[in-house]
Specification:
- The chain is of the alpha+beta class and 315 residues long.
- The chain has two domains: 139 residues, PAS domain (Beta-Lactamase), CATH 3.30.450.20; 157 residues, no CATH class.
- Helices cover 30% and strands 24% of the residues.
- The longest helix has 31 residues.
Length: 315
């Protein structure tokens, strides 16, 4: 399981732990008054005070038909009584044996917002299923349940536009302005990375430009055209900055990485490098080739591979 999915699952486990017991208690109270609409509304109005992050509460019969009004913190929405929710995503999932389900996230019909629903099975005293208690949550109202996930450093290959891949052998590389001044451009980029506080760069060979982010102003990018990239004076516009201690890419590897990008740009006239990115802090390199295939890998994985390897597996 990748880091994104494992982080999502951990967040869901924490939410389930928070919601399961209160919803079970509320379901017991609803079973006593089932299926009296007014009594169900009264119970739900009392219960929603215990869930400040909840958007709507409601009761459904086993066929997915709503037998209460929608209860919100602002009051009742009577138009939802009798609504058929049987085709909503959360009612198409299998409810576990304990009767509690936290749905996958979905886009809500009313607010068009990423949302999820918790369902609790309601049973009578003999254990017969009466219906469900539903609780809708807007994701932005849920409490923070963890930290931002860490991006995986595993090698990833992503296929691009199939129409481009289908025509790759009918095209050839056209020399760009950046190609013509490649050595000067790479020298400027090495200076920006190692001495001038640039920590991320997306280099577009075909359109002769680069987008860079700096330590002094990390929330905004700067676009360097060919004229700027090929002019060493450009370095003077970036204040001197010590190489970041937390960088995963060592400073001495920058020149080798840039040189290898140059090799891939010129190695073949049909399958060639269109763009590349370098990020010092996550230690990752990306490569996008003329066939529109992209690769993401660590800097040392990149340097360990020969040119033949890349051209053979670019798509």
């Amino acid at each position: 399981m990748d880091m994104l999915r494992s982080t999502i699952e951990e967040q869901r486990r924490r939410l389930e732990s928070r919601l399961h017991e209160p919803l079970a208690r509320a379901a017991e109270r609803l079973s006593v008054v089932w299926p009296d609409r007014q009594a169900l509304d009264d119970q739900l109005q009392a219960f929603i005070q215990e869930l400040p992050e909840c958007t709507f509460l409601y009761a459904l019969n086993t066929g997915g038909i709503q037998v209460s009004d929608n209860i919100s913190h602002a009051g009742l929405l009577t138009s939802h009584f009798g609504r058929d929710r049987s085709q909503r995503p959360y009612l198409k999932e299998v409810v576990p044996a304990d009767g509690f389900l936290l749905s996958e996230a979905y886009i809500s019909l009313l607010g068009r917002r990423p949302s999820l629903t918790a369902l609790q099975l309601i049973r009578d005293a003999e254990g017969t299923a009466l219906g469900f208690l539903g609780a809708d949550f807007d994701l932005r109202n849920l409490p923070d349940t963890g930290s931002l996930y860490e991006e995986s450093t595993e090698w990833r290959q992503i296929k691009g536009d199939p129409s481009i891949r289908g025509q790759v052998f009918t095209q050839t590389r056209t020399e760009s302005q950046l190609d013509h001044d490649m050595d000067a451009v790479l020298s400027v980029l090495e200076e920006l990375f190692t001495e001038r506080g640039v920590f991320q760069c997306v280099l577009h060979f075909s359109s002769s430009r680069a987008t860079v982010w700096t330590l002094d102003d990390p929330y905004r990018y700067r676009i360097l055209t060919h004229d700027a990239l090929s002019d060493p004076d450009t370095c003077l516009a970036f204040p001197r900055k010590s190489y970041p201690e937390k960088a995963l890419v060592p400073a001495e590897a920058i020149a080798r990485i840039l040189e290898n990008l140059k090799v891939l740009r010129f190695a073949d006239e049909t399958v060639y490098l269109r763009s590349s990115s370098i990020n010092l802090f996550n230690g990752m390199i990306s490569l996008t080739f003329s066939c529109d295939g992209s690769h993401y890998m660590t800097w040392d994985d990149f340097l360990d591979r020969s040119c033949d390897f890349w051209l053979g597996g670019a798509g």
